[in-house]
């Protein structure tokens, strides 16, 4: 099922808890199917019973109330509760060896820090993880309650201001898996998505190497102009590009913004055109986004700036 879903759905992949590609999501899917089948059987038995009574094949008995009204629901619900407790406990169990990725929900984007106590590399709006290795998402919020959900990988977990929640993840397939905020967090809550990119472990290690350190140099005169516009226009007040300006923290880290699969937290394709549109009028693309519009930038500056950002891979 998951194979065909992946090949036909292109860049963003299917966002479905019924096509699991992670240990947690597979367990939850099994539980869902198990519960549906179990209660389906109960339902059919009940229909047969009602039919028997209405058709006059069964004469009413007092003990039916004890058996069907108390014993049967008690036993079936207890059994299923046992299963779900065990499964939920297993999939929320943290592996002490896991790679920790701190994800902070913000209106309306995701701040991502890989291995905060060690490597400490910052990204945004996309989470890259290795296949088959244990990962723990350390979930925080800096404003209101958000919730992180990647249906194909595991269950959802709230991001609550002043609290730290942990969500273990283990992906069993490579690919791009869409996730989204699953707790209403304001005007653009439905526009707060992201992607998890699952790589083979050796590709992940190479990606780690590539992504550490400073942003790519501006290779042409136009890109250099774009970098200068970034600084002159005041973008560093909120954004960091490592090696260029490193103080801004109010907006997503842009050191490798051009390498992301999407712009604006899972909303638009990442390319120079969408970048230029975003800079000129962010709130037209995402109502309530906490970034001022730069529609006063002269055309050539906007072009150079968006070309520079697109080149940051
Ligand atoms: C007042 C703070 C602020 C300033 C100044 C600012 N931004 Fe932003 N920017 C943000 C915030 C906040 C977001 C996230 C919006 C969202 O998705 O909800 C953002 C998002 C972005 C994104 C999308 C990033 C992604 O991962 O998709 C780009 C690109 C961007 N800004 C470029 C710029 C550029 C270029 C400038 C200067 C011309 C600039 N910003 C100035 C706050 C700011
Ligand atoms: Cu949210």
TrEMBL record:
Residue span, Cytochrome c domain: 221-313
Keyword Electron transport: yes
Highest taxon, organism lineage: Bacteria
Membrane topology: Multi-pass membrane protein
Main subcellular location of this protein, as a coarse class: membrane
Pfam families documented for this protein: COX2 (PF00116), Cytochrom_C (PF00034)
The keyword Metal-binding appears for this protein: yes
CDD domains xrefs: CuRO_CcO_Caa3_II
Domain Cytochrome oxidase subunit II copper A binding: 96-210
Transmembrane segments: 27-51, 63-88
UniProt catalytic activity: 4 Fe(II)-[cytochrome c] + O2 + 8 H(+)(in) = 4 Fe(III)-[cytochrome c] + 2 H2O + 4 H(+)(out)
NCBIfam families with a match to the protein in the record: CoxB (TIGR02866)
Family: Belongs to the cytochrome c oxidase subunit 2 family.
Descriptive protein name: Cytochrome aa3 subunit 2
Source organism per UniProt: Sulfitobacter faviae
């Amino acid at each position: 099922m998951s194979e065909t879903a992946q090949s036909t759905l292109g860049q963003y992949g299917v966002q479905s808890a019924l096509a699991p590609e992670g240990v947690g999501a597979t367990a939850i899917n099994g539980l869902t199917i198990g519960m549906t089948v179990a209660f389906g059987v109960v339902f059919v038995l009940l229909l047969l019973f009602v039919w028997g009574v209405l058709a006059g094949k069964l004469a009413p008995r007092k003990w039916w109330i004890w058996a069907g009204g108390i014993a049967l629901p008690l036993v079936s619900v207890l059994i299923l509760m046992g299963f779900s407790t065990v499964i939920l406990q297993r999939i929320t169990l943290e592996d002490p060896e896991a790679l920790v990725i701190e994800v902070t929900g913000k209106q309306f984007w995701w701040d991502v820090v890989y291995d905060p106590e060690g490597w400490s590399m910052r990204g945004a709006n996309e989470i890259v993880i290795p296949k088959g290795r244990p990962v723990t998402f350390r979930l925080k919020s800096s404003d209101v309650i958000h919730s992180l959900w990647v249906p194909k990988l595991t269950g959802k977990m709230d991001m609550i201001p002043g609290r730290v929640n942990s969500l273990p993840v283990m992906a069993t397939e490579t690919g791009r898996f869409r996730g989204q905020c699953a707790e209403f967090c304001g005007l653009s809550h439905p526009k707060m998505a992201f992607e998890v990119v699952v790589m083979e472990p050796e590709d992940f290690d190479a990606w780690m190497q590539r992504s550490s350190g400073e942003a790519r140099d501006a290779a042409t005169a136009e890109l250099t102009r774009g970098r200068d516009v970034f600084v002159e226009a005041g973008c560093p007040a909120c954004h960091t590009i490592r090696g260029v300006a490193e103080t801004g923290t109010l907006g997503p880290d842009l050191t490798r913004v051009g390498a992301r699969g999407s712009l604006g937290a899972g909303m638009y394709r990442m390319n120079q055109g969408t970048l230029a549109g975003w800079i000129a009028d962010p709130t037209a693309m995402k109502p309530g986004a906490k970034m001022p519009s730069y529609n006063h930038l002269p055309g050539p500056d906007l072009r150079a700036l968006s070309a520079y950002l697109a080149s940051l891979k």
